[in-house]
Amino acid sequence: GIPVSCSQKKTIVVCKSEKLRSLFCWVVRTDQLTECTLDGGSMIVGCSNKTAYQFKISYDPTKARRTTSASGDETMTLGLASNVPIELGGGIVVYVQMHLVRAASYEILLGRPFSSVMSLKSANAIDGQETVTVACPNSGRKLTLPTYAHGD
User: Fold this and answer.
1) How far is CA 70 from the centre of its chain?
2) Which of 6 and 34 is assigned the larger pLDDT?
3) Rounded to whole angstroms, how far apart are CA atoms 5 and 107?
4) Is the pLDDT higher at 28 or at 39?
5) What is the DSSP secondary structure assignment for residue 10, as one 8-state letter?
6) Deepest of 9, 14, 16, 52, by most Cβ within 10 A of its Cβ?
7) What distance in Å separates the CA atoms of residue 143 and residue 122, rounded to the nearest whole number?
8) At residue 123, what are phi and psi to the nearest 5 degrees?
9) How many percent of the chain have pLDDT more than 70?
């Protein structure tokens, strides 16, 4: 069992799993919010081919690359869309290099390249809530944003 000290009345344990967190952003200067899933373990910024088609995002198919999922599955991307603007709100726009992925389980995936360039810092709460603070690499302006459970 879980050891409980004399002063503790209740022991808090880690959940068996938690959903990834998402931001809602504007892509390619549209008036439509899009779910952008945060995944600091991903080596790419990704976009589902369905989302790319919806937003008329063009890409270079000669820049397709092999990716490996966390489960070890390998797949080829469809290509690379360069300098795609994503507005986070508050006027902060970041231009990402976006790999198009066939039948992805996300609309937009914001991986390590996004986290790094935006100096992303996250603050988590015991109830599962999370906020992220980003710094615009061009202006230095900072913004704290709430996140939402992926798919909710």
Assistant:
1) 15
2) 34
3) 46
4) 39
5) -
6) 52
7) 12
8) -125, 115
9) 94
Report the alpha-carbon distance of residue 18 to residue 91 in Å, rounded.
Answer: 30
User: Which burial class, exposed, middle or buried, applies to 44 when counting CB atoms under 10 A from its CB (0-12, 13-18, 19+)?
Assistant: buried
pLDDT at 8: 58
* 106, 100 contact by CB (below 8 A): no
Please give the order of strands across the beta sheet that includes 130-135. Answer: 121-124, 130-135, 142-146
Q: Cα separation of 77 and 134, whole Å?
A: 27
Cα end-to-end span (Å), the chain: 34
Residue 149: partners with Cβ closer than 8 Å, 6 or more residues away: 19, 20, 21, 22, 128
Q: Are 149 and 25 in contact (CB under 8 A)?
A: no
- Count other C-beta atoms under 10 Å from residue 95's C-beta: 13
pLDDT higher for 32 or 83?
83
Alpha carbons 24 and 88: distance in angstroms, whole number = 7
Query: Is residue 88 a contact partner of residue 145, using CB atoms and an 8 Å limit?
Result: yes
The rounded distance, in Å, linking the Cα atoms of 52 and 32 is 13
Residue 7: per-residue pLDDT: 55
pLDDT digits (tens, 9 = 90+) for 59-83: 999 999 998 877 788 889 999 999 9
